[in-house]
Here is the input.
Amino acid sequence: MGMWVHTMFAAILIHVTAITSAWAILGQAKASVERDHAVMGGQVQSTLAQGYSVETITVVGMTVKEYVSSDGTVFAVAWRGTGVPNLRLLLGAYFDEYLDALTELQNKKPRIRRPLMLKTANLVVERSGHARNMWGRAFIPSRLPAVVSPKNIQ
Here is the structure.
């Protein structure tokens, strides 16, 4: 039975890794969203709004929303689920900026069970939640369409 458990764990790990490695990349073209749909498989829903669309992908334990401007650029991502997605992949070129801001914030004051709110010159990232109920969002303020308010990104 021990071997069965290890095999099952490995299969789940591979499945989760495949899912999280494919999410849309902030600041890149909508093609990254289309690749997500092909790789992740889950339920997909596309919602059109004035000046942008929201591509929602739902897989076991996670819902990811990818916000795409009318020019075809991913300007925001949001997630909710049982964990935190792979932010390195989700934030793409903005990940290092996120890490630098996170390190600076943690050096100023240690984080004690409160929502994370980071704002840099180019990026806003918010994360919160507790075990099995995590949520977050990241967006590029300079790329928000005029009709989109940060409160619309959820």
User: Anything to note?
Assistant: Residues 2-20 form the longest helix (19 residues). Residues 1-22 have pLDDT under 50 and may be disordered. The CA atoms of residues 69 and 145 lie 7 Å apart. The radius of gyration is 16 Å.
